[in-house]
Amino acid sequence: MTDLTAIATTGARLAGWLLLVIALLLSGPVLTLAFGRVPLHGDWRTATHRSAGLAPDPATHREAIVQVYAGRAFGWRGAFAVHTWLSAKPAGADRYTRYEVIGWHARGGGSSVSVSDGGAPDAEWYGAPPMLLRDLRGADADAVIHKLPKAVADYPHAMSYSVWPGPNSNTFVAHVGREIPELHLTLPSNAIGKDYLPAGQVWARTPSGTGYQLSLSGYVGVAAGRDEGLELNILGLVMGFDLRHPALKLPGIGRVPSDS
Description:
With 260 residues, this protein is α+β, with helices and mostly antiparallel strands.
């Protein structure tokens, strides 16, 4: 009887800790919704894709340019994560090419990878204004553009897509970052999917190339790097801290204080 009581007590304690961890993980997304940072009412068919004015005009900026953006995901998913993409313009080009993964492109056996020059490089993501994550010009941008075609072609998940825990748009941009160290890319902690690694791989460099990470299919993992700081991934939600640029990293919210 004593043993049964001890087992029951231990089980209750474990359940209590589990509930506490889940509550902490969900507190960030709940606060994001509570403060109105993610509009829940809207139609994706009428959502705006206006330029945010962050991309230099190719007519007056003739040098090579590479920019990486992040915008809140559409609807309730925006409480948890952002969508990331990369836009690039070689020297002398009249328009940008936008590189990203779009989930519905993978339906019916198509590729989820979108390479297009038809839209604004800094367009709102279904009404969500983008944040500029990386901005390279001139020779630095040229070095990245030279490697972009191969990095995009080598993306191993082009024919599959999963919102959680990946592979998704953030998995793609993280892959490009690992393949092109010259990009020096640090992704937001709320870019769910960035920690998803190819099947069978549990160890990799962080997207910035300044550290390493351990990840079990994006569900659980840990990352440590000069640019990323320390990140703990539980069920795709990341918490941690950055000492180089002091900030906490909270699930759903991202950096506190924010860089934007």
